[in-house]
Amino acid sequence: MDSDDAWRFTTLWMQAHPAVAGVLWAMVRDPHAVDDLLQEVAAAAFRGLESWDPGRSFTAWAVGIARHKAVDWLRRRAAEVPLDDVSLDRLGEACTRCAPELSAREIALHACLEGLAGRSRQALAWHHGEDRPVDEVAHRLRVSVANAKVLLFRARAALRACIDRRIVAERGP
Amino acid sequence: MTPAAIVDAWLAGDPAARAALATALADPLQADEVVRELHLRHALRAALRAERQMATRRWRPWHALLAASLLLACGVVVWLATGADPLRPTLAEADGATIHGDGVVRSAHAGDTLPPGAILEVPGRVRLVLPNSTAIAVQAGRLARTGDGFRLDAGTCQVVAAPQSPDRPLRFATVHALVEVVGTRFTLTVDHEATVLGVAEGKVRFTPRNGIPRLVEAGVTVSAGGDALPTPVLAYDFTAASTWPVIASGTGGDRLPLRGNAAATLSRDGLRLVPGAEITSVGLGDPVACLKAIRAADAVSIEALVRIESSIGADKLLLAELLGFAAPGRPADGQRPVQLWRPHGSTVAVGRWSLWTAVAAGGRLRTHADGVLIADEALPWSPAAWVGPLHVKFHPAGLRAGALTIAACRIHAAALTPEQIRLRRREVTALLPAP
């Protein structure tokens, strides 16, 4: 593999990365494991780039690697694969289908986060930014666990709505 | 249930969500919503963690002073109000240990408690127990009591921690790092060079000094260096022929660590590269683990012992590149390889070994030649945001004739300080190939 290949891989991986992350999140449900598996998938794809058929979607190929890596990870922990093959196929297809829009959604998310403040923002920062469990977030906010869950759910819903608005606005009339 | 609610329940481990998720995935429109929600979780975590890192960098000494003063004041108030030591570590055995405190040194005995400010000096091995059943074994070391935990100055301590209150974790500080425990089993070792944490069970929050906090899981060992040189995550000594069996045999394949064999030779003087040749870490060491370590530390330092074999024009550049890939969301950062060395041609001494060091951390890229800072520029990316494999490439670009010889290369998951770089320069003479 020469520099051009590495460069090409960079571009392809940047496009596939959000879709691969989606599959891993759904399968392993552990953010730390997702971080590690993303590295492993990228390394495997990098090493195996010559076996990728450019006639096929790179994202779909990388999603396939991610699926195998996640299954290996689950088996090493004697955990069952949480979804059946049909659902995993559908998940992979949906991730591949949505891949082109996910990077734009991520950029919109950064802008939307700037408009979020107060307890919602703090709850998101603790739970999603620092991986603190919901009961700890509830304890820190002095609310019940159920209320903390609702607060987090509504904060994410507000972000989703903001992202959707920005995406629509960027597409124009 | 909406796709968002399904994903929420699914990620929370609700078994009832499996059927709902399968149903949602069967409908393409709902499946797309599921993917968007999964992606939101991933992107949200990445964005908030990146913000946190930036906030850590913005931390100013006066903030620290103010916070320390407030904490101290609060501590005094709490102490006066309760008049009790919630930790009350008690020696289960003494084994020749001594307790230092209030200017007095006395022999330790089983049943003694270690009050805040006291230091336990342990020549052999002793065991401390806390009222909540947490057990701490100290071996050949020095353990000091602090207000909210302990400071390990030297030696090793093994901890079996009972569950702690989430808002009051048990803390172990060392000169290099802070370890916060909420109920787990781990080993902490500190010497003058580094602090090493090995987690046997549960999770521990580990914060290297001047670094970002991370949760360390069972089975994982991490370290944080002090003033001495951190252990490199990848190190190549090119003079060791055994490192390069592939070159000698002339075979290729995935395990080949050197690309462009025809343009490179290995001798006892080192690895000789001509323009176009490059080294990649693929197949040598574990580039994934290396990149993970760099990402966790949010810093990388690369050093190489090199010799330029012929003069190059003042307009030429000598490039070494570390290929990482920045996370999406900031596309401009991720579309090109990261160039870690950019020494100007005219600064390169010909025919002489020199140690080049590039340090990427805190939004700056600093390049040193033989311990002297020769370039300091803004860096638009953060090593913590890297994804993808690690690919190291030395590319003597601009060398129309001549060659570059490399005797050794090290990659550290840390930002080497100027003092450490100078220390390394003193050490590196031992690496120079024999004349």
How would you describe the overall organization of this protein?
Chain A is mainly α and 173 residues long. Chain A has helices at 3-28, 31-47, 58-76, 85-114, 118-129, 134-141, 145-171. In chain A, helix 1 runs antiparallel to helix 2, helix 1 (3-28) packs across helix 3 (58-76) and helix 1 (3-28) crosses helix 4 (85-114). With 435 residues, chain B is α+β, with helices and mostly antiparallel strands. Helices cover 23% and strands 37% of the residues of chain B. Chain B has eight helices and 26 strands. Chain B has helices at residues 3-11, 17-26, 28-57, 61-82, 245-249, 287-297, 331-334, 418-428; strands at 90-93, 98-101, 104-107, 119-129, 135-145, 149-160, 170-173, 177-181, 185-190, 194-201, 203-208, 214-217, 221-225, 234-237, 258-259, 264-267, 270-273, 278-279, 299-308, 319-326, 338-341, 353-361, 364-369, 372-378, 386-395, 404-412. In chain B, the strands form four sheets. In chain B, strands 1, 2, 3, 4, 5, 6, 7, 8, 9, 10, 11, 12 and 13 form a 13-stranded mixed β-sheet that branches. In chain B, strands 14, 16, 17, 19, 22, 23, 24 and 26 form an eight-stranded antiparallel β-sheet that branches. Chain B is flat and about 70 Å long. The interface between A and B is large, with 67 and 62 residues.
